[in-house]
Specification:
heterodimer, A: mainly alpha, DNA polymerase, domain 1, 5 helices, B: FAD/NAD(P)-binding domain, Flavocytochrome C3, Chain A, domain 1, 4-stranded antiparallel β-sheet, 22 strands, 35% helix, globular
Chain lengths: 82, 571
């Protein structure tokens, strides 16, 4: 696995602080349990997900909506499971 | 963002500093709507809205500010509509209005439809509409910047803020002719809170350190049933469908507190019963700090059909499947009524005089329109009305100032830099998580939704002990780039100011009023609901220096109409 830019990783961690408590709780667990084992491509997909508005992001995590991109959908599956 | 828009459109050079991308502020969580007596669905009047707000505030709200807000409401909502806010609409194209708890017509007579919403995403839609408009107006956004301290000159005039760029940890001075705080609430002082992690009361901490008192900090709105340890709300509909609250002995304790209504008793009765059970040692879990909401006796099909989402919330945030095991719940903090003292012009007011160059609006401010309890949908209205009015005050103030900025006062800047230096150099210190947990547990146990004299007194001592921990926090990561440990340590230094203000103000106020309810100030014929107007119809002002408490009178005089006379608050 190629190393991901460590500065970028820290930026991603901060950008995972959101406006909605539910997302904060899910993402906190995601970082504690799963984030470190993601591949660079998976981290890229997660970064794209972070651009979603909070309300849409939560709908996807709660299974009320889905994402079309298979890489992003795979990350969402992880978020739904943590 | 409402204020920034007003300033930018007036041609002023406007910088907005934000810890997170502006549309990811906690306003995004506001679902209910924004109230305005538009009268689109049935007759309504701003005086009725004003009456509901004063009553909701349990007469602690200032009636000049409340009149101003309720009169301005139709204007600011219509403006927002013109900014592109996608409000729900009636067939005739007007804004659709829905009923909401506490919204009444004709001075408390019957419910009226006053809440304007954009589906269940009102806050989100508002943030987006205002952000887009600000971009168009050339507002300069500094995203992922954390303001550290207010800068005041020797005369107390505010000159701007010291701020840290998260990407580099560089500390920079933003000198400004006028500075507005719209930094939100500090719900994270409690162990159980619906607030997002960013709600750390940064503006309140900065104001307190700069010698500005905090007003009415004992008043916090709570929901009875949040998932213990997480804060995510379990709808009250669960009890409506037959959910039962149980203590550590498995007892259905609501039978003792409300023999008829039992688990369907009103929100305050249920919250108080839960806290009493926990306080008397019948709480559940290793820390005996919550009770259980049991729906295991319900048909799983009913749970799935009538309570959608509850099973998922419970599994995800409580780690239990409610079909098989009860959900741990606890009264959960939601909204802060107090804040930085302002008038209805948005000017920060100390000792009866505006602090030159300093303004506040929204949850961090206390105008005071919410008094001892906030009426639903008035929080979004608060930030629109006072965002706009404070910006107008800023425009007037700036026009009177000389073109050149005054010489920068450096004392506050040095103090701010020293604060970060202390943190960077601390050894043998306290972990930020440990100090934060101690603060949150202390606030939850000693100053929650229902308060006890002895617990409050002990709470004051404990929170001052926790403050010592906060003064010695240590971070192991000393790096410069997006150092979340440093940011969290700095946030905690803001939270602890709010926690002290809350505990000390609550301990001193020996009545019950609105959201501040004490066991030793019960409902009696002489003091209905425990409210003691003879002694406590006044605003608390807590100052950080010496934890000093002072009081100022409530303004019972509206701007143009007659006062809304004191009455017992009952619904």
């Amino acid at each position: 696995m190629t190393a991901y830019d460590p500065i970028e990783l820290k930026r991603i961690r901060w950008r995972s602080r959101r406006g909605l408590l539910e997302l904060d709780l899910v993402l906190e667990r995601f970082f504690a349990q799963r984030f470190d084992s993601l591949s660079p491509a998976e981290i890229d997909a997660y970064k794209r997900i972070l651009d979603l508005p909070d309300t849409d992001f939560l709908d996807v995590v709660n299974g009320k909506a889905d994402l079309d991109d298979p890489e992003e959908a795979a990350i969402i599956e992880i978020l739904r499971s943590v | 963002m409402r204020a920034a828009l007003q300033l930018s459109e007036a041609g002023l050079k406007t910088a907005v500093l934000s810890k997170v991308f502006p549309t990811r502020s906690h306003t995004v969580a506001a679902q209910g709507g924004v109230s305005a007596s538009l009268g689109n669905s049935e007759e309504d009047h701003w005086t009725w809205h004003m009456y509901d707000t004063v009553k909701g505030s349990d007469w602690l709200g200032d009636q000049d500010a409340i009149e101003f807000m309720c009169r301005e409401a139709p204007k600011v909502v219509t403006e927002l509509e013109h900014y592109g806010m996608p409000f729900d609409r009636n067939a005739d194209g007007t804004i659709y209005q829905r009923p909401f708890g506490g919204h009444m017509s004709n001075f408390g007579e019957k419910p009226v439809r006053r809440a304007c919403a954009a589906a269940d995403r009102t806050g989100h839609a508002m943030l987006h509409a205002l952000y887009q408009r600000n971009v168009r107006a050339n507002t300069h956004f500094f995203v992922e910047w954390m303001a550290l301290d207010l800068i005041r000159d020797a005369d107390g005039n505010v000159q701007g803020v010291v701020a840290m760029e998260m990407e580099t940890s560089e500390i920079v001075v933003f000198q400004a002719k006028a500075t507005l705080f719209a930094t939100g609430g500090a719900g994270r002082i409690y162990a159980s809170s619906t607030n997002a992690f960013i709600n750390t009361g940064d503006g309140l901490g900065m104001a307190a350190r700069a010698g500005i008192p905090l007003e009415d900090m004992e008043f916090w709105q709570f929901h009875p049933t949040g998932v213990a340890g997480a804060g995510v709300l379990i709808t009250e509909g669960v009890r409506g469908e037959g959910g039962i609250l149980r203590n550590s002995a498995g007892e259905r304790f609501m039978e003792r507190y409300a023999p008829n209504a039992k688990d369907l008793a009103s929100r305050d009765v249920v919250s108080r019963a839960m806290v009493t059970e926990i306080n008397e040692g019948r709480g559940c879990g290793p820390n005996k700090d919550h009770v259980l909401l049991d729906i295991t006796h319900l048909d799983p099909d009913v749970i799935m059909s009538k309570l959608p989402g509850i099973r998922e919330i419970s599994i995800k945030f409580a780690g239990v499947d409610p079909i098989k095991a009860p959900i741990p719940v606890v009264p959960t903090c939601h909204y802060q009524m107090g804040g930085i003292p302002t008038n209805y012009h948005g000017e920060v007011v100390v000792e009866g005089k505006p602090v030159h160059g300093f303004y506040a609006a929204g949850e961090c401010a206390c105008a005071s329109v919410h008094g001892a309890n906030r009426l639903g949908t008035n929080s979004l209205l608060d930030l629109l009305v006072f965002g706009k009015s404070s910006a107008n005050s800023m425009i007037d103030f700036i026009k009177q100032q000389p073109l050149e900025l005054p010489q920068l006062a450096t004392a506050d800047v040095e103090r701010s830099v020293a604060r970060v230096e202390r943190l960077n150099k601390q050894t043998n210190g306290v972990a930020v998580n440990d100090a934060r947990t101690a603060m949150q547990r202390t606030m939850q146990a000693h100053c929650g939704v229902f308060r006890f004299k002895d617990m409050l007194a002990q709470g004051v001592e404990k929170i001052l002990e926790v403050e010592k921990m906060v003064q010695q926090t240590e971070i192991s990561d000393k790096s410069s780039v997006f150092n979340m440990a440093r940011i969290e340590a700095l946030e905690l230094e803001n939270l602890i100011e709010v926690a002290k203000a809350t505990m000390i103000s609550a301990n001193a106020r020996t009545e019950s009023r609105g959201a501040h309810v004490r066991d030793d100030a019960p409902d009696t014929p002489e003091t209905p609901n425990g409210r003691d107007d003879a002694n406590w119809l006044k605003h608390t002002l807590w100052s950080r220096e010496g934890n000093r408490l002072e009081y100022k009178p409530v303004n019972l005089q509206p701007l143009t109409v007659d006062t809304i006379a004191l009455k017992t608050r009952s619904y």
